[in-house]
Specification:
GO terms for molecular function: oxidoreductase activity. It comes from Pseudomonas ulcerans. Its EC number is 1.1.1.-. By secondary structure, the chain is an alpha/beta fold. The chain contains 13 helices and ten strands. α4 packs across α5. The longest helix has 17 residues. It is globular and about 60 Å long.
Length: 344
Amino acid sequence: MQYIRLGNSGLEVSRLCLGTMNMGTPDWKPWIFDEKQSEPIVRHALENGVNFIDLADFYSAGVGEEVVGRIVKRLARREDLVITTKVGYGTRSGINASGHSRKHIMDSIDASLTRLGMDYVDLYMLHFFDVNTPVEETMGALNDIVKAGKARYIGVSTMLTGQLAKILLCCERNGWVKPINMQLQLNVAYREEEREMIPFCRDQGLGVSVFSPLARGLLTGDVQSTRNQTDFFTQQMYADEASFEIARSVQRVARARGVSNAQVAQAWVLQHGGVDCMLVGADTTAQFDSALAALDTRLDAEELQELERNYTPCDLINDYTAGKRILRTARPGIERFLLREAVA
């Protein structure tokens, strides 16, 4: 395993972070694993050096935190782990049951700690940017949570660069703790965060952790998976021809190397100069092993050109642009890969 300090903090985390959205209860979504199914995956990740685990109160409406909390209590010492959970979407319906108001944040941290069976989380993250709550209210609440010892650090996820700048300015003005990490979506089929967010995070000293390195399964070649057949977000995000062409390019490079599509797609993310950590939401230990292999997979210039040639700009993927993607057109391919495909 490789480790890195997260942003300008002293916190050391594994470059592979175990994603847990698929752990909790299938009553929430049909592709979710229950506790018995989840434990071997968590154990395998820990045995291979992972110390960074990502959760959210939203996952399985809170059951995800309960399940993972019980599993890690059986398998590891709390002080050896870096536990992250997120707040925003909530676990139930109702007024004040979501968003980033002081009320909801304070209620949510206590509820998350109870479900996890822990006294603190290492990293408490905003799941998105709440445009309906004053940023001073949100960041003041997070600062108080850190001062109370309920979280060691704070982080953010999935927002516009200007919104992150607003958060940092607010913290600077008030002398409050600042986020140490930005969690964003990045993969070879979605690269819009390269334009502003990643350079801004580098400039401001935030770590960058990446989710959806496989474009919600598109880049594995398994478009018929249970998740892809039941998760409408996949269709909203990756249903254009450019995304399909990128998936074909991943397959070409994988075939030339004799490795899995997933390993190539994950290697592209891990080799990216703006990425510190990559979330791995594995359904099996073998799927986790492809991410381990990707840590040591170096793509050459021709492979990178093949992987990247189909990419064209698109709408940002966030809560405000769902269903508004631009249709994209691919660029010409490299003869080396096209000839190999024709022979196959």
